Amino acid sequence: MFNLVHFLLFVLHHLLQAQALTLPQDISALKAFKSSIKQSSIPSWSCLASWDFSDDPCAVPHHTRFICGVSCSPDATRITQITLDPIGYSGQLTPLISQLTQLTTLDLSDNYFFGRIPSSISSLRNLQTLTLTSNSFSGSIPDSVTALKSLETLDLSHNALSGKLPKSLNSLTSLKRLDLSYNKLTGFLSKLPLNLLELALKANSLSGYVSKSTFDGLTRLEVVELNDNSFSGTLGAWFFLLPSLQQVDLANNSFTHVEISKPAGGNSDLVAVNLGFNKIEGNLPANFADYPMLSSLSLRYNRLRGAIPLGYSKKKSLRRLFLDGNFLIGTPPTEFFAGDTEVTGSLGDNCLRGCPANSQLCSPQQKSYAICKRAYSGKPRS
């Protein structure tokens, strides 16, 4: 009797395994996903090659079929993750992806997907991570992406996306990391999600002002990368007073002025600032010296004048300082050239006097007297 019970349990176990576990709509969506990828781009040893629908996608164990690239819910009925191996799959993202309504992660990074991102992606209401970086997606980012209220990471960088930023980006209330870098996006910066930690929009064709209303309420924002765009105008003092700001890269834009206030109560987490290769005029902002943790500062190749503030040389946290390519005058602070100095960077290509030729900081050489004279409409003064 005991052996008969064990035998029946064994048979029942295998019968259950033989039955389809995954919801039929999820299976059909997976089939459509695979069929939209060129067969010639699917190596025999790849994850996608193991997707053999003669077996159930959520059946375990996965010995020879569905060995990677897809994950299921604990009850083995729903597809929850698609994470492809980065081996060069080529194809389009099928609109039927919308049937995978329990999907939390969609990661197709480092492949050759092309065409538009389907607007039906808005049906993936449980999606937390959408990573399509380093593909060839084109067209605009669908406005429907802002319906993904659970989304925490959106990375569409390194594609060929064009058009304006989606409307109502700020409705993505769970979003913490947004990276749309290295695309062909145009237009202005729209209001940002309040819980954002990292913002990267570098190497696009975005333009206009960086306004306070865009960043209003972003108390958790730590990283801002807007370099290599066409932003212009004045960067207001409010920007560097964002309470959690740590790293800023606004290089290679067209900013003309920057306003720097002392941090409130002398407290700030700001560590690195890059404002190089803009069109910033006026004197060097002396108040940068009051940011207690600032270790890297670049204002290179702007249109700055006047002397180097003494506070820069007395700032113990400063390790990298790039002020080259401006029209700075006077004698640089001697502390920069003391034997125990730890500052690296460049003060070259300015109008400075007495910058020691044997110091790495003074390379490249200063501008000619004629250029400096023209810049100051006469003899440059300290």
Automatic annotation (TrEMBL):
Gene3D superfamilies: Ribonuclease Inhibitor. SUPFAM superfamilies: L domain-like (SSF52058). Keywords: Leucine-rich repeat, Repeat, Signal. The lineage of its organism: Eukaryota, Viridiplantae, Streptophyta, Embryophyta, Tracheophyta. Residues 1-20 form the signal peptide. The gene is LOC107928836. It comes from Gossypium hirsutum (Upland cotton). This is LRR receptor-like serine/threonine-protein kinase EFR. PANTHER family: LEUCINE-RICH REPEAT (LRR) FAMILY PROTEIN, LRR RECEPTOR-LIKE SERINE_THREONINE-PROTEIN KINASE GSO1. It comes from the Eukaryota. InterPro entries: Leu-rich_rpt, Leu-rich_rpt_typical-subtyp, LRR_dom_sf, RLP29. Pfam families: LRR_1, LRR_8. The keyword Nucleotide-binding does not apply.
